[in-house]
Amino acid sequence: MNKIAIDLPTPRVFKPLLYPSRYKAAHGGRGSGKSHFFAEAAVEHALMNPGSRGVCIREVQKDLSQSAKLLIEDKIQSMGVSEHFRCLHDRIETPGGGLIVFKGMQDYNADSIKSLEGFDWAWVEEAHTLTSRSLELLRPTIRKPGSELWFSWNPRSVEDPVDNFFRSSVLPPDAVVVQANYSDNPFFPDELESERKHDEAANPERYAHIWLGHYEPMAVGAIWRRQMFNDRYKDCPTLKRIVVAIDPAVSAEDGSNEHGIIVAGLGEDGRGYVLEDGTTKGGPTDWANRACVLFDKWAADAVVAERNQGGDMVKHTLRTVRPHLPVVEVHATRGKHVRAEPIASLYALGRVSHVGMFEKLETQMCQMTAAGYEGNGSPDRVDALVWGLTELFPDLTAHKAKPRAMPQVSRKWVV
Ligand SMILES: Nc1ncnc2c1ncn2[C@@H]1O[C@H](COP(=O)(O)OP(=O)(O)O)[C@@H](O)[C@H]1O
Ligand SMILES: [Mg+2]
After folding, report:
1. CA of 30 to the centre of ligand 2 (A)
2. Which of 60, 105, 112, 406 is the S-S candidate for 134 at Cβ 3.0 to 4.6 Å?
């Protein structure tokens, strides 16, 4: 076989990760080249170790487009080694009968994870979202002699399991941990540079987290904590009620305001499930259309909308798009954070799970404090969430939903 010689320009910051070690970890801000580095490492590993098997892992992977598959395929191309690989729909065949697969930890249980036991490496992308359950499942599974566990993430909180594992005072044995930022990336593209400059000017509170890899600013007295989202679901159980809740922004002339739109359901198990964040920008027709699309997609029971500021406008806009849409109008008599508190306590009691990952919503939630919202702009996503869950858990609030005098036809769904 011909020898392949590939020159791979590599940011110096990643050099310590080039020697074999049990754990390889890279944390830091956006655009530091972490994903590119590990994608190249995956291709290199496959070339150097024919027949080896690797898995790219995320906590939640709804479909392959969220995985590192495309990036690895691009690397195979740009490294000029396509003839040695076969990119299939859900996996990549590598030299010598090896394999790279793409998985979400949520799809595994203690039994099924055993299918990864013979693997040579696992790379956890966006590892800040990894739950402690997942970390504990993964570590003993990747156990082949010489096998490696790779992690890349942007730190959010010292309490995130991956951070605690790699950045507390006791390091796991044979672990190399590097910090990388955009300034360490010689390939940092102009497009990202203008994004970065914009955030620096417009979003100073979050800049250090997004771009410099600092922990997320913690709102003092926040009523939600990241850990409350740890009990994530990939699919929801049978739901007895589903609502689409909207919090339209009032002045959207310039189309820049976000209209919070959240889909939530009440399970037959009595728990709440957040199903989708459909928040959108644009004018009234845009949010009304989005609400209808989600209403159909989830076969929802009602659209919940606040009538406070818009008066009849909200209902009217919805009915213009869909004349017979079942709309439940809600009315804010108390401040945002006061309305949010009973919902936050549902989370604290472990009665609500997110089906998937809703980064923007979850970030807003963690900036909601007993004294008000500490994030930028207005917490439209949280507002919509609170309306939706309040409708699904009417007993929570002092003002119970008025009984609606409507004939109730109940249907049994048959497949
Ligand atoms: N090895 C590389 N070769 C070519 N371009 C790279 C490389 N590493 C990083 N880049 C460029 O830098 C950008 C940010 O890198 P990325 O790996 O996505 O960063 P991170 O995962 O740290 O956010 C990429 O979109 C790409 O344009
Ligand atoms: Mg990345």
Report:
1. 7
2. 105
Residue 207: its H or E element: helix 204-212
**Which pLDDT value is given to residue 292?**
97
- Domain 12-191's class? alpha beta
Interhelix angle 34-48/69-78, rounded to 10 degrees, is 60
Report which of 250, 361, 240 is spatially closest to residue 309, judged by C-alpha positions. 250
The CA-based dihedral angle spanning residues 275, 280, 284, 289, taken in that order and rounded to the nearest 10 degrees? -50
The H or E element that residue 179 is part of is strand 175-179
Measuring CA to CA, how many Å separate 32 from each of 82, 138, 189, 203? 26, 26, 10, 19
- Return the ligand 1 atom nearest residue 26 CA: 22
Residue 292 near residue 321, CB atoms below 8 Å: yes
CATH architecture type of domain 226-397: 2-Layer Sandwich (3.30)
Q: Which residues line ligand 1 (CB under 6 A)?
A: 30-36, 185, 187-189
Q: Residue ranges of the domains in the chain? A: 12-191, 226-397
Which pLDDT band holds residue 269 (cuts at 50, 70, 90)? very high
Distance (Å) from CA 13 to ligand 2 centroid: 15
